[in-house]
């Protein structure tokens, strides 16, 4: 099955008919994407504009992107802590105009408390999705079936000609097949999807990716990843919702802690995996409940989610061995950071360290040591870069933004990249109105197709554990 | 098949008939060993005498152990660098009395150059092995079939009533079946075997084992190992012998770098593995040859040994997840030590670091942080130890012997433990004349049976790689 790209809606500032808009399936779509996002010289990776803030700092001529939110509450939650402050900082580009929540009262009070002056509280998902005042729907829900809610939204939004973007939170509570259906439906409806694999927007991750793409560590020949997810240990707060500890739900050590981390690793190295083996371990089937002060209350609760993941495999590019251990649960490690990614190459090394084991929300430090390349093996360096004789010299870098708020910052940068695409702020020639996936491009943002490939990898993690097999996963990176 | 313990020769200072000396197979033999080596109060692990130097500092009444050496040359080699200086430092306990080498001239010149006044050069393996002037045979040979030479030695030594010890270098060039035969033959002939898994004698390894055994890190719940073996990279010295890079021989990244490391890990944790998965990777099938100055000479040579091993699994005790990545080849890692062993527990952590990736020969640093246990969960603490209220307190330790020469030191301590056993310097009651294996005891030394279990684990590493399977290895720790 190819990727249908008919019936797509017009993008604000882009040429909608650039010769690639035919139904030729994903491979062409990808190649085209590379051309359009990479080959423009001023905006190629050597110019590093992807690392700069958006050029749109005032309200664009065409008006801001109107955001309808599913799952924003003024009381608590992920959306309040991350999406809301990110959108606030991009108020010229985005405006929250609609809310849908399980109760309309929750939406009304959130509009009042957050002073969302132009927002409407919708009583039903049908009225919400069909409102012409919504350009982008953001879904940030916990413990709800993603397939059902997204299919409802897609159904009811058919008559909303303005809807162009669907932004979904990772991790997903839906199956591979369901996600394939969602991908096909959004493409058919001309809706550009976004998945919050926001680690790809971390400045540290982009710098690591850049160093590697420009040949600063030579050929990668070995990678070690060790993470420590703070949940899933011997104790848990009494007030933590039970669904977080139930394997039947989509949020656990494998899908989130490992999922974000391995997505970022693939993104940095520009490679998927060829073979993998995994052991999913639950050594703590019961947890002690503790109160707000961390004192045991003398009760236990079952835990069916894993507290450890062992994962190893080789990358498709270069057959690079990757060793990965994700430990759940306190106590934290005393002599290592809670996140350590070591990437070794023939000419240098990169180390990424984070205080928390969650690469997508923790501030990092990047250490690089290696040999400045003569010529980038992948991309030509910028014309502006001096070609004097400092190539071949040993060079070092410690990259750290001391006050970087990664929790909000990475989500902020993800919204920024949506605005850059929507308003074509980087003036990329022949920018399409829709693209299938980001894959490993510097520009753009991850889509539900990127999420689909990650879902398949994670499915194979469980399958490897269940079968006790090393699996060839080189064929999972195809649509469908 | 049980472990025959009939026909054993008398130990110098020990009671040869302590009620356990019947043919009851290895399990009884192990239990007995525990009793004899552990329960004696003055010498129990809480007294930590295993960490002290031998009490025998003058020539014992019964004379030193007469050592016959296969593979000692004054020109070069492992035996010259390690065994020889170790024996020199234990001249009251050991004396080299016989040499056998491929040519008798080599033995004669070695006796002359090393001033081995009481040593004889033997022209044939038959005359060497049958000489009554040999109590212990040490085999330190490269690129020779261990099975053939050991079986010859055992055959020709039948009439040498004095021969009590056979000391063999790890790694072994022989199959599992051949090693089983050797184990059976040595037991039948009453010969105590020793294998040079000398990492077990490293003071850092023993301290880590002690901290864990006494409950200082609580229950182990996660382990990460990353090592970097300096060989097997993109270049190799022109003068390096080709057999080192030929998978058909017994010495490579898996057998030596990984073998020593995983043996030490099992020893520290007192646990074998239950499930394992491995990927054995050879990404560098050809190496550039370099001269003595490291300059490329424009020639390449084939390499069939691996340059990377990915290994993960769970320990039999506690289902502890273990992640292990052994990288071969320069360049070395810039931001980690070449050996890092991280052991995490419910009450603390231990980190072992080494400058070189070879745990058995590199000096280490041990870092410990955790909570002082109330009572050791495994062993009762010494009566002399104060039982005041400092249990439950957070405690830290950095253990490092700045001038420790691990290359010689660990082999020296291995010889020392042989002398301690032979002369019963620790005055252990009912010390047997022979024991099957050290397993995870503090006292004693590793034997060919310990080596057999390690050979089986390594065989399963290759098997896991070849089959693409996670393997249950819990049944391999049985004899035969």
TrEMBL record, chains A, B:
Gene Ontology terms: biological process: galactose metabolic process; negative regulation of transcription by RNA polymerase II; positive regulation of transcription from RNA polymerase II promoter by galactose
GO cellular component: cytoplasm; nucleus; transcription regulator complex
InterPro entries in alphabetical order: Gal80p-like_C, Gfo/Idh/MocA-like_OxRdtase_N, Gfo/Idh/MocA_oxidoreduct, NAD(P)-bd_dom_sf
Protein name stated in the entry: Uncharacterized protein
Single GO term (MF): RNA polymerase II-specific DNA-binding transcription factor binding
Signal peptide positions (record): none
Lineage: Eukaryota, Fungi, Dikarya, Ascomycota, Saccharomycotina
Domain Gfo/Idh/MocA-like oxidoreductase N-terminal: 65-157
């Amino acid at each position: 099955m190819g990727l249908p790209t008919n019936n797509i809606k017009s993008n604000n500032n882009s040429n909608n008919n650039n010769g690639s808009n035919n139904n030729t399936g994903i491979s062409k779509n990808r190649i085209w994407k590379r051309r359009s996002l990479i080959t423009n010289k001023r905006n190629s990776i050597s110019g590093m504009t992807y690392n700069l803030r958006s050029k749109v700092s005032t309200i664009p001529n065409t008006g801001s992107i109107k955001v309808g939110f599913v799952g924003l509450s003024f009381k608590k939650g992920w959306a309040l802590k991350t999406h809301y402050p990110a959108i606030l900082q991009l108020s010229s580009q985005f405006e929250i105009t609609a809310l849908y929540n399980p109760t309309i009262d929750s939406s009304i009070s959130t509009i009042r408390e957050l002073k969302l002056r132009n927002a409407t509280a919708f009583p039903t998902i049908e009225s919400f999705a069909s409102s012409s005042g919504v350009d982008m729907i953001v879904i940030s829900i916990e413990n709800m079936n993603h397939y059902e809610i997204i299919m409802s939204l897609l159904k009811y939004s058919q008559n909303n000609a303005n809807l162009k973007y669907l932004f979904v939170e990772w991790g997903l509570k839906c199956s591979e097949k369901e996600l394939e259906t969602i991908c096909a439906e959004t493409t058919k409806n001309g809706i550009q999807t976004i998945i919050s694999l926001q680690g790809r927007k971390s400045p540290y991750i982009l710098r690591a990716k850049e160093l590697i793409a420009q040949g600063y560590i030579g050929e990668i020949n070995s990678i070690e990843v060790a993470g420590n997810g703070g949940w899933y240990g011997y104790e848990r707060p009494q007030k933590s919702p039970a669904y977080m500890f139930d394997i039947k739900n989509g949020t656990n050590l494998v899908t989130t802690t490992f999922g974000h981390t391995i997505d970022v690793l693939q993104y940095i190295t520009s490679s998927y995996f060829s073979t993998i083996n995994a052991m999913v371990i639950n050594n703590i089937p019961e947890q002690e409940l503790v109160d707000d002060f961390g004192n045991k209350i003398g009760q236990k609760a079952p835990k069916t989610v894993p507290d450890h993941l062992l994962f190893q495999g080789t990358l498709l590019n270069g057959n690079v061995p990757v060793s990965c251990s994700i430990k759940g649960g306190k106590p934290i490690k005393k002599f290592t950071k809670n996140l350590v990614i070591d990437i070794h190459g023939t000419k240098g090394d990169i180390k990424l360290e984070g205080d928390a084991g969650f690469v997508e929300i923790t501030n990092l430090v990047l250490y690089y040591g290696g040999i400045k390349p003569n010529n980038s093996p992948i991309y030509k360096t910028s014309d502006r870069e001096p070609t004097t004789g400092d190539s071949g010299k040993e060079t070092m870098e410690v990259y750290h933004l001391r006050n970087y708020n990664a929790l909000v910052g990475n989500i902020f940068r993800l919204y920024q990249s949506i605005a850059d695409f929507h308003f074509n702020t980087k003036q990329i020639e022949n920018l399409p109105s829709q693209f299938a996936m980001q894959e490993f491009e510097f520009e753009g943002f991850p889509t539900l197709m990127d999420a689909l490939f990650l879902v398949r990898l994670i499915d194979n993690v469980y399958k490897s554990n269940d079968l006790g097999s090393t699996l060839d996963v080189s064929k999972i990176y195809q649509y469908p």
